[in-house]
TrEMBL record:
GO BP annotations, alphabetical order: carbohydrate metabolic process
InterPro entries the record matches: 6-hairpin_glycosidase_sf, 6hp_glycosidase-like_sf
Protein name, UniProt field: Uncharacterized protein
Provenance organism: Marinobacter orientalis
Length: 743
């Protein structure tokens, strides 16, 4: 920070620290920065802010949870704090207690509604962003209580129908409990629904419980009151929960008196409660007759006023016209459909890479998510999100979501070109200046004054993708910069030919600088594989350098540097068939595994399918992936528990298995699993937008082992050369004007 350079400040801080027996924080900070390359930006302030909030919650958790383990806590706490559970993490000198073992949840919602309630693996519903939660319990009159968060095993799935819902079932001897969470419109207002069903072999009570916690930990409730009709709560004076029937018994407790769970059999009934530390708990009880099912639905309005949202059949309308997958493998079919629903849900205006931890905007995540939207025909959503990009561009041309991330401009220009390519349009006039300024920023940002250093001509050291390591001269940034300049040149070729030539020349010059730098790395490392930066050895951060092959396609599919980098990663950085990012994420990454799979698919290497299968195995029962996955337990260990970038990569992977662009050629069926053909059913995908037009492709097996590949297309202009590369069969170059071939 610049103010730290002022001598008085340094002297004061150092003196105060020594007086109180602390290490000199300025000296310590300078040592920390010494492990990174000098950079104009340390870490993006947005990430620092998010980290502070995250660990502030963890500090509160450490003050509350471990001293009150008799409370009923969310699933992750019950597992992570259980010394006999594989998810157990010793607390020891940890200052903060955070969810590092079961960061799994699934969003529900309504198209274009910004509120995204989340459901944890045992059905706990958190209706508002980072809010309190609702849970369902079953209390039998013999004293047994079915608490889903304490159940080792439970069944959960996602329904993809007229509404998107998450269903959870738990049971113990003689007791059954299920819940369903979804969002629907009522008089134009989105309302989150939480339906709980209970069945017991003996009489008992269904318990609707209000919890001051969520999948990140404690979330304060200061007050709650039961309505006069006993059919709802008012929480903290501004949120309402309505029950479908009046509560027959009702209890409230505060922090000093312990969890309401221990008061369920109290005779005294309470209607309201306040807690000065924000740990109010409440329970509404509804009688359950022996052998009969009792059902209660809680309704939580997500806004106060009617919103301009699609009507009740919105999900059906949204999914009309997008590229549909028809395949004989239920797991792949479900994961694709769930990923499409996830993309729709998280693109209400901006696009979000997650409903909770990552419910904010990054250009990097947006580029991949919008590419997925475009590639399956959700073009209007993609265009709406892109239309918001210029307002985030600085006067200097920088597309800024976070400072110090120099990949953003290249990603913006690349995804803009994808939008215009896949829609067959030319950039409208209002796009010309943002494109020009964005491309000039890339050129101006390069380190041209350096002439001999390994980073000469590259972009400055920056934080870049946070999973690559400390500040450095990342090739990830450079490859995106080169791609952005080429994209700008293409988009301006007709309307601004002079600018187009300038940016093309800049891209060529930039590529030469990167090639020179990589040649130095090859000499130093004694192999062609690309490290993360000119100053790094080959390590897990090299995953970022794959951007030259996917998705930018700046090099040929068989580029030795690219393939050697992949071989290093497969040999040294994969665990149980998935990429293990040992820096920061410290977990298996579904979306980065699929980046490697895309490189293998382009190269015609059949190992792409092994990686796809591994990613399919890592998905949750609801069809989602957390950003990073614990290699031992399979639970989320980092990032958002519902990672939309991962959903986007699954959609893109499936799409590219059926139809993908390779330069000026169109490749059909290059990644369809051979095992699908053995089922004897027609396999299809589409209609899928491509750079050449919209394509629908199908594969029909026959008893003689000679399947027919057929396609229909609406080309933008002329039909491109088409290669049919169905695995297990000799590649075929389709005759121009035909729409099928028998292999």
């Amino acid at each position: 920070m610049t103010w730290m350079k002022w001598l008085p400040w340094r002297f004061v801080i150092k003196s105060v620290a020594r007086k109180h027996g602390f290490l000199d924080p300025i000296a310590l900070l300078s040592k920390v920065h010494g492990f990174a390359q000098p950079s104009e930006v340390g870490e993006p302030i947005e990430l620092l802010r998010a980290g502070v909030v995250f660990h502030a919650r963890g500090l509160i958790n450490s003050r509350v949870i471990q001293h009150n383990l008799d409370w009923v806590w969310p699933y992750w706490i019950e597992r992570q704090f259980d010394p006999k559970d594989p998810s157990f993490i010793p607390r020891a000198f940890s200052i903060t207690h955070i969810n590092l073992s079961n960061r799994n949840w699934t969003a529900v919602g309504h198209p274009d509604c910004d509120e995204l309630p989340i459901v944890d693996p045992r059905g706990l519903l958190t209706p508002f962003f980072d809010s309190w939660s609702l849970d369902g319990w079953l209390l039998a009159e013999d004293g047994r209580c079915l608490l889903p968060s304490r159940m080792k095993d439970s069944r959960q799935w996602q329904e993809l129908g007229d509404v998107i819902s998450v269903d959870t079932e738990s049971s113990m001897e003689g007791l059954e409990l299920s819940s369903r969470s979804w969002v629907e419109l009522e008089d134009g207002i989105p309302v989150c629904k939480f339906r709980v069903r209970a069945k017991s072999e003996v009489a008992g009570s269904l318990v609707l419980a209000l919890r001051p916690a969520n999948p990140e930990g404690v979330s304060f409730i200061n007050s709650v009151s039961l309505s006069d009709k006993r059919d709802g709560w008012t929480v903290d004076g501004n949120r309402s929960v309505t029950f479908s029937a009046p509560a027959e018994r009702h209890h409230i407790s505060d922090y000093r008196n312990g969890d309401v769970h221990i008061h369920l059999t109290d005779r005294e009934d309470q209607k309201e409660g306040v807690c000065d530390v924000g740990m109010v708990t409440a329970a509404a009880l509804f009688s359950v007759e022996a052998g009969k099912t009792r059902e209660i639905t809680a309704s939580i309005p997500l806004s106060q006023n009617p919103a301009d949202l699609p009507e009740a059949d919105a999900w059906q309308t949204e999914q009309e016209g997008h590229a549909r997958l028809v395949c004989p493998e239920p797991r792949y079919q479900f994961l694709y459909d769930a990923a499409v629903a996830s993309l729709i849900l998280h693109s209400p205006d901006d696009v979000y890479p997650g409903p909770f931890t990552y419910k904010r905007f990054w250009f990097r995540d947006a580029a991949f998510i919008i590419n997925a939207l475009l590639s399956i025909g959700l073009t209007a959503r993609a265009g709406r999100a892109l239309s918001r990009f210029p307002q985030r561009q600085t006067k200097g041309g920088y597309f800024r979501s976070q400072e110090g991330e120099w990949d953003a401009n290249g990603e913006v220009l690349w995804i803009l070109k994808r939008f215009f390519d896949l829609t067959g349009r030319r950039p409208e006039k209002h796009w010309h200046e943002p494109i020009r300024r964005g491309a000039r920023w890339i050129t101006n940002k390069r380190l041209r004054k350096e002439t001999e250093a390994p980073h000469a001509g590259l972009l400055p050291a920056g934080f870049s993708a946070e999973h690559l390591g400390p500040n450095d001269y990342y090739y990830w940034d450079d490859f995106w910069g080169i791609s952005g300049l080429h994209s700008a040149a293409d988009m301006l070729a007709v309307d601004s030919p002079d600018d187009s030539r300038t940016f093309r020349n800049d891209a060529v010059d930039f590529a030469k600088a990167v090639d020179r730098s990589l040649e130095g790395c090859q000499q130093r490392l004694k192999r062609p594989g690309m490290p993360a930066s000119p100053y790094r050895r080959l390590d897990a951060g090299a995953i970022g350098s794959l951007a030259v092959g996917y998705p930018t396609q700046l090099c040929a599919p068989d580029d030795p540097r690219l393939l050697d980098c992949v071989e290093f990663l497969l040999e040294r950085c994969f665990v149980d068939g998935a990429f293990y990012q040992d820096m920061i994420h410290s977990g298996l990454n579904a979306y980065l595994t699929l980046h490697v799979a895309q490189i293998l698919l382009r190269a015609g290497d059949p190992r792409y399918l092994q990686l796809m299968d591994s990613v399919a195995e890592l998905a949750s029962p609801t069809g989602q992936w957390p950003e990073a996955i614990h290699p031992g337990t399979g639970g989320g260990c980092m990032g958002d528990g519902h990672h939309v970038w991962a959903s986007a990569e699954w959609v893109l992977m499936v799409r590219n298995c059926f139809v993908r662009e390779e330069g000026e050629r169109l490749v059909l069926c290059g990644g369809i699993p051979e095992r699908w053909l053995e089922q004897g059913e027609t396999i299809s995908f589409g209609p899928a937008p491509t750079a050449f037009g919209t394509v629908f492709v199908s594969v029909t097996p026959d008893s003689e082992g000679s399947p027919t590949v057929a396609w229909t297309a609406d080309w933008h202009t002329e039909e491109p050369p088409i290669d049919v590369k169905l695995p297990g069969y000799e590649p075929v170059v389709a005759n121009p004007g035909t729409n099928s071939t028998k292999l």
